[in-house]
Structure formats: C-alpha cells, structure tokens
Amino acid sequence: MFSGLAYPRLLLLRLESNLQSESLGLFALYLSSGELFLDIPNDLKEADLKKEEKYKLWLKERYEETIAKLIQLVHHENLNVKELSLCTLMRFVLEEAQLPAAKHCQSKTHFPVALFRRVVLTLTSASCDSTALIGRFKEYLSYDDVRYHLMRILHKQIISKTQDTVSDTYLNNVEALLEQIDFPSDEMEELNHFLTKYPENENTEKVKSKDEQRKIYTNLWIDFLQFKLPNCVYKKVLTILHDKVMPNLTNPLYLSDFLTASYDIGGAISLLALNSLFLLVHKHNLGYPDFYEKLYALFEPGVLHVKYRARFFYLADQFLSSTHLPSAMVAAFAKKLARISLTAPASALTITIPFIYNLINRHPNCKILIHRETPEDTQRKIQHTIICGIHAKNKETMYCAFSYLALTPQRTGDLSVAACANEMEPQPMTESPVPFQGKEQQAHEREQEVKKKPKKQLFSSKVTYRTKASKDKLARTIYSSSLKPHILACLLRDINKEMSSVVSTKTKSILRQIKCDSLANFSMDLFNQELQVQAPLTYKIISTLVKDSEVGTSVGSAVLLNFRNKHMSSLHHIIAQVLDRGGATNETIATLNKLGLCVSTSAAAKQQQELLKQQMQHIEKLMLQERAEIEKSGMKASSVSVQSSDIIGDNIDISRNPSQMSVDRRRKSWHWFLLVGLEKRIINDALADDYQLGDICRIDNSVFVPSVEDCSSLEEHFIFHIAHVLVKNVNCLKKYASCLPKFIEHSHIHESSQKSDYAILDILDKSENKSEDMISILQYIHENFIPHTEGDNPVVLSRKVFGGDVLTNERAYSAQLAMLNGSTDFDQLAGVIHRPEGLHRMMNLLLFIYQTFYKKTSAGDKGSLAYLRNRVGRIDVQGAEEVIGKYRSHFAFVEDCLDAHLVAAALKYMEIKDVEEASKFRQPLFEALPNEEQRQFIYSIARGILDRYIKLSDGLNVISMKAQALDAQVNHINSMYDNHLNKFICQPCNKKYKTLNGMKKHLQKEHGMADLEEADDSSSKYDHVAIYHASFMKCALLLRDTNDAYKMGDGDRVLSNSKFQMLLSRAGNHTKYQLWLFRYMANCLCLLTPRMAYEYKWNCSANLQGGLGNNIPCDNLVELLVQTVKKAVYAQGANATFTSVRKAALAIQVQDEIKNNIQNECDKKQSGKKRPPVSKLVDISAMASELVSIFDFVPGREHPSFTGFKDVFLNIKVDELHKWLTMNKERLSYETV
C-alpha cells in the first residue's frame, strides 16, 4: 500500500484541508525549482511525452485545480479564509513573476497577466461584496506593475459593460478597488518598484512611465463615472475625490461636469460635492459665478441632521473666512443660520453658535444685528432706576441711590440730589421724556412693574462696593467703642445657639449617621452646606480661620462638634477605620481618641462588626444569590439572570519569631487559606450549556500546537509591540506615535474595561500543603458556594472555576482524584474547574528566559544578558534562582533588554548610528499623509526587523507540519484497527499487531511509511550568536504579549499564547507548567460546554480601577489580598490570632471603600494604585550601542558560554511531544469527571 512517495501523498491529502499553508509551500517550492515550467509543442501527443514531461503536465494540472479552488474560496463566508486565499493567489502571482510556469517570448513581459486577471475578475464580482477583502489587497498595489495591470484590466472591463449589465455590487467593488489605487509621492517620472523584472524593450516603457499610468488612471475614472451610481457608492466617490483622486489625474477639470451636476442635486450629495468643486474653482480656475448663491441655498434645516454636518460647516467656514466678502452677504448667511438653529438639535448648536459668532466677529459691521443703542437711551434708564431706588421702602436701598446720585453726576444728567430728596413720590422730570416705542415701550412697562414691587436691589456692583465700604467704616467705629463687650456677648450667644441647633437630634446631622453606607459615602460638601444653613455664623468664623479651606472647615467643625456631643462622630469613625486599615495599633487609636480625633478602640471594634455585616451582604449578592436561584429553579447558571462569579484561592504562610526563644516560646508558623470571589464580567448567554465541546481522545494532537494561523497572528502582535518600542525610543520615528493604535482590539474590550466586583469570602484554618486540608477546602467550597441538590446524595447543578497558581491547582486536582470513588459528583468534588492563572504563568516564562539566556559565566560574552546586566549596573538582577523572589526587577530587566535589542535592530535596519540620527527611511509630506499610511509605514519597518533579525531558524512551522503529519499517520493506523479482534490489521499483507507502535514500525519497515524522527543539525553554517539573540527576542516578545493580553483582558490571546508557552515549558523541562497549560487548553477546546469554555477563557483577569489596560491576572489579585492580610497580622502584633485576623480580613474591603471615599473628598491621589513611569532611555541607548554589531551575519560565530546555540523551538522533539500529548489526553479522559 505504501511506496517511496508515501509522505508526499500524505501531504497531498492534507492539501484539501489546509490550502493556505500546504498549497503555498508546495507550489512555491515547485515554481522556484522550475518543476512547473513546461515547454512542449502544441501538436505533441501525450503518449509521446517523456516521464518527466508527463509528471510536469500532471503537476501543472494540479496547480490549475488549486488556483480554481482558491478563487472559489475568495467568496467564502469566513473573512479569514477569504484573506488567506487572496494572499495565496498573490503569492502565486509573485512566484510566477519570478519564475514563470510557461515560456514567454522576449517581446512580452514576465508578469503573469492571465492569473492576475482571474484574481481581479474575482474581486469585482457582480454578486459578492468584496470590499472587506479589497482592503487587504491594497498592500500589493505598492508595486508599479501590479497597479498598471490592475488599471488596464479594470478599464477594459468597464468599457465592455453597459448600464443594464452592471449591478450595484459590481460598482461597489470597482469603487473599492479604485479607492485603494495610489501613486508614489516623489517627483520621479520613471517608476522602478516592480514585482518582476521587465525586458528592456519599447513595450515596457508604458509600465515605467508615471505619466502613462496617470493617463490610464484618468480614463478609468472618467469611464467609471459615466455609470448611474447607487447612492452609497455616489457618496463614497464624492468623499474621496478631492484628496485621493484629483491629485493623480492628468487634468482635474475633466470632473467639472460630474461635480456641477452633483452640486445641483441637493441634499447630502451637494454637501459632499462642495469640497471638490471649490477646489476646482480655487486651484484650477473653474468659472462658477453662482457658487455662493448655491451655498446659501444649502443652509436648510435638514443640513443640521445629516452625518456630514461637521464637514459641511468646516468647508463653509473656509469659504466665508475672507474679510473681503460683502457684509450684506455675510449677514444673510448669519441670519439664515440663526433662524434654522431655532429648531436644531442640541448637538448641532455647539457648531452653529460658534459659526455665527465667527462670522460676526470677522465682520464688525454685522454686530448691529445683535444690538443698537443710543446714549440718550442709556441715560434715561439710569435716571429712572435712581428715582425708583430713592422712593423705596428699604432704607439701605434709598441710601445707596442717594450715594450713587451724588458720586456720579456725569451719568445722571439733570437729576439732582435736592430735587429727589424733597419729593416723597417720584415726580416727572422737567423735560418730558421721549415717548417709548416698540421694544423701549416693553422695557418701560417692566420697569413700572419693578417699581410696584421693589424687592430686589437694582444697582450695579460698583454701587454695592462703595456702599459696603461705608458700612465697614461705620461698623469699625461702633466695634471700637464701649459697645465691644456687648457685641462679643451677642456673637457668642448666637454661636452657642447655632451649635445647639446642629447637635440636636431633630436636625439629623450627617455626623450622626454612622452606618457603613453613610461612612463609605461621607461628603464634606454636604456637611459644609449643612453648616451654612444651620450655623452660618460659626461656618464663617471657622472658614476664616482655615483660610476658606473646605476640608479644614469640615474637619475643624467635626472635631469641635464631637467635643460638644460624642454622638457627632461619623468623621471620627472614618478616621478610626482608616487608621486600623493602615496598620495602626490599638494604643495609637486610643491616644488619638484622647485628643478628640477619632473614636475609642471599643467603638472602632464595635463598628467593625457592622463592617462584617456589610461584607456578608456583599458576599450574598456576589456569590449566594446565584446559588439560591439555581437551586430554586433546579437549572444551570445559563437559565438564571443573576450575577455570576468565579472563586480564586491561595495559601497565607506566616512565620512569627519570638524576641527570646525558650521551651515555651517557640517560632509560630501559620498556614491559612484565603478564598476570594470574583465577578464574571464576560458572559455569553447565547452559547449552549448542555453538551461537551468534544471528545478529548478524538481531537488531533496538532490542535494543542501552534498552527500557521496562530504564528501569523502572533507575528502581527509582535509587530504592534515592535512599532511602539521604535516610536518611543528612536528620535526620527517619534512623530509616528500618534498614528499607532494604543492597544490591540478584541471583542470584549468594553467589558474588560469595567471595574471588577470581588469579595474576600473567608479565611480557612487549613493549608493547601496537606492533602486532607485541601479536601476540606474543596468540601467547604462545595457546601457554601456550589449550587447542588438537597438530600443524602446531593448532585452538582452548576460548576464554578477555581483559580490559583499551579501549586494550588495541582493539589486541588490531586484532592479531586482522591475522591473519585464518591457516589455523586458532589462527593467527588467535581463542582470546581481548575484554571492556572496568569501571574505565575508569566513567572514561569520569565524563569525559562533566565535559565536559557542568562549565565553568570557569560558576563564576558558581548551582548549576552549577563554582559548587559553589568553594562547598566543592574545589581538587583541575580539570575534564575532569584526570579520568583524578585520578580519585578527581573521582569523589568528583560523588558529593557528587549527594547534595547529592538532599538539596535532598528539602527542596523535603518542604517543609522544612534537614536538621535535621522534616517533615509522617511515619508515625504509626512504631515499631509493620512494616519493609515503613516501606520503602514512604521509597521513595514517593524515587519522588516521581525523578518530579518527575529525569525532566524524559526522552528515553529516545522513543529506544526510534523505534528499534523503525525496526526495523519496515527489516524490512518487507527483506521486499520479491528474492534472484534482488538488488533491492528495491515491491509496490504494482512499481518496483525496488538499495539499502535508495533503497527507503525511494520509500516515504516515493510511498506515505506515515512519516518518523521528529527535529525540533529549542528552545522557550522549558522550564526549561533544571531540565533541566541533572535530566540531571546521571540521569548521576550511572547512574555510582553502575554502580559499585555492579561492587561487588556484578551482571552483569545491568552489561549493562543498558551500553545507557544507549553512548547517553551517542554523545552525548559518545566513539567508541571507544561501539564497545566495543556489542561487549560483542553478545558477551552473540548472538556467544557461551549458557554463554560467561553467564560473560562475570557474571565481570566480582574480590573481594580476600571479603564482600558488596567486588568491584572486573577492570582495577582489574590497575591495583593494575601499581602494585605499579612499586614493586618503584623499590625496586631503578639495579640494576633486566627479569629482576629479573619475579622480584620473580612472588614478590609469595606474599610477600603471608606478610605478611598475620604481620599477623594480630600482631593488626594490614592496610594498604591499606579507607579509613575521611570525613564529607561539612557539604559536602553547604552545597551543598544553594544548590541548593534551582533546583527551582522557571521557564519559559525557563537558565544563561548552558549556554544552551538539553537532556536529554542528546535530543541523540541515533535515525536516525543506527540506521544506525551496522546498519553495525557487519555489520562484526562478518565480523570475528569
């Protein structure tokens, strides 16, 4: 059955299931080797062909079938399949351009026009929308010959069409292709960036000529615009004409008929045509005398409701910005816009009102539209106001009126003080006032109404200021007299009365509210408002003492009121709980209580009991409501609409040494277990929850190994991180920082930015280090938090994730195995699903990096990690043995080394000497380019660095292909298994074997089955120094991407990166982490239900602050809480017991709420939330200068301490990995309940 070509046939079988990777690799190889080149006469019969020619003919037929299949897949419903098919076809175009599959004469180009035409015709399908795919096609249009042939093919196709034969989908696809066409921005007349080399003859001059290509481009657009375009295409065309199309036309005036016709249509079409038409008028001298009349006609109410509103007003502002326009025309625009603004939506007013203001401000003559007033009108109003004030019943108002009349005679005209003082009623003035007309009459009537009811002061601030100065002088005179003691007595009596009113139970002061909710929401603003109402005199005195400080007024008033009445103590309770949370001893709290600054220790302890009740309510809402609802309905979590959550746990290990040891006083060692509940922020109710994703034994082993798609996706993430390093550290690239995305998008970015709800559930006097204690911990979780039925044989209704570090997971898993003989899944402790969390996973990856790349003996090897450590003096970095204990410093050093490597690679790639030097890699007219082009430029540099310096000896593709081939072999052998005989039967020779390995050896020996054993290649042709640094950058970038995935809460990236980390754990002999990463992937891919697997993958992080990029791994949250509990133990000193620590731990969260609220009230930055960034530019530049030389390729070069260094992934033996995966899949099948 098998022959010498068994392995190639096996690959051909895989070709149908993986077109992208297999077909590209096979036919690219055949094209490059010339095996697809066939040059035979047309009249030669097949029987006369040689064997080699028949083989090539057969191979070419398979090549054509592959192309046809790929063209079909371009219209596949999955976008990833579409993109992969298109990229494969264009790779074939590239390969055929370099080495054609058929003979070409010297007068023709080597460009594969026939194949390229099929690709273009597929993209411009009349029935399938290809706009999403055309965006990916843009990268190939940077080649001048590809652009030329695309335009020729499109032009011929458009000419052959008529209006009746084109569909809206076809026009939409053509427009999308035209939109992607762009020309080089330099001034070279001859183009030279080709996909293939052209023969030097006259037929290729058109391809090289930029003017010729622009001529074709112009004709293409003119013919395309002859069609009757659908509305959506019409709008997209008008949107891009002015900046993408017109600059590349031979003469933009060719578009004048199309644009004037569009401008006359009206509505949104006219708005979009406005920009291009103005460009023709302004830059190309197009005569259009009615431009401003047509623009005025566009100012209708509907213009405020279209989505192009902002663009229209921006252009209109440009058109009306000239100060040489007639004021009458500008006034007409302002009046019409003001009129339609009366019915405009609120969001539009933020545009129209500044627009009207700018028009009037540029043209001062238009200000009369707002107000026109004569001096006589102003003087008449002043006189009337003074007369009304003098005859007011209020003495203060009358005094102010006389003062103003005496001090400002120039503003009051012929009105005199004597005349007003002698009159009891206001008399008419000597001269009859001018009769009021129109608006003046209405103002006069309003003044008459005010005169009848003189309740408000009718004078300006200047009059008030002068009156106040006179009163102050009078008050100082009285206070300095013999009346001073009596005045003070009155003041004290009023203050005492106010204070009695504030502390009265009838007032219900804020300071009397000492419940948990009140303490956590205490507001100093509300307290100050209460003081202003109940005790205004006291408030003014205290605020004056503290220089009008709001915080000082609140705190000072609270302390004074507490001395008057001990029940006014809410702020004192807050201070006591903040002190307790910060680790203050009882002695400290008692001392401050005597000073009147906080409550007593007994009151604080009593209040802590209330905090515990508040915490229990929080736990009830977070954990127990879900359990109650599920148990009540008897259904799974997917059927109830309450908050769902996971459980995380870790050990608390504390050692206490007495000051003097004796027989009775020994070292105390406490081992407790902390349980934390964490809300699941990402839930998918649409997924099924009643069946398992798959059978673990039937899933191919290659699923657990990075595929080609996984590698491609990881490379894109690497490019993102590389680009951010370059714009941060290389001076000539810093201007690109604004165009780069701030983060890698994923489908749940909104949910992951929400603040997480979590609660400390309990502290158990158990240790995970003891098997019986671990069983007790899981039993406690099942009894209290896992929904189950009642009775003697309870059954689990819904399972929960139990996360932690690998040690916790391993011991909990062992505890479950010990209880497998239980009668129900509840007794078997099967209600929890284990999940290894991210912090310890990243610690393990960091440990692998130091074990692989750091040796103290390599300090003399230039560029090694130990060498760089000494170069920048990082004495806090000690190597692999200190990674776990000093994780932060070791992680920061690897991050800095990675940045230094990438900066050095950029210097080498861009051919510059240091980070301050300018590079020849630059974009002309940078500021004028759109963000997308700027981003693609910086990404192209990052891609070049990745391809040239990081992907050296990349063994991932080898591992992926061998794993797939081994899966195919095993599946083929399994198909020979006879269930009746329980043996494998060889079909060709009918021999029988009991084991799979025996059958495999027989097939390899007797039937030529391919042996996929790895061969050790230690050739001296490799630059082992370059491979060392490439491997380091790969591992460090994987660590950075994994860390970023947890920060962003990106579950898909966390799962994808676990495949790579499992391989590295195997390469570093980290058996436990390799096993748990495999179990993690097994849960995500097959062991759980679809909904549980989805939520298991996505709820891997917690966000303590809210906001993008602020997530931390779940075990990091537990570590923070463990450290907090330890601080509480140390604060209690020798009095610490399990009971006291448990109470303190359960009160921590409520105390944090109180502390955070009072910090916000005091306008202080919360401590311990985020460290300020530290500049590492000096260290990175110093390390980069040492690393530049290592990027020169020198065959046979190696570090003395790392002789024969190979790519880290090449250290993995795929056949042994395959056996290991098979063994552990079988183990999981019977260990998992």
From TrEMBL:
Family under the similarity heading: Belongs to the CBF/MAK21 family.
Q: Which PANTHER family match?
A: NUCLEOLAR COMPLEX PROTEIN 4, NUCLEOLAR COMPLEX PROTEIN 4 HOMOLOG
Regions of biased composition (Basic and acidic residues) lie at: 441-451
| Designated name of the protein | C2H2-type domain-containing protein
InterPro entries the UniProt entry points to: CCAAT-binding_factor, DUF6589, Noc4, Znf_C2H2_type
List this protein's GO terms for biological process.
ribosome biogenesis
Query: GO cellular-component terms in the record?
Result: Noc4p-Nop14p complex; small-subunit processome
Q: Which residues form the C2H2-type domain?
A: 986-1007
| Pfam families hit by this protein | CBF, DUF6589
Q: Where is this region: Disordered?
A: 427-453
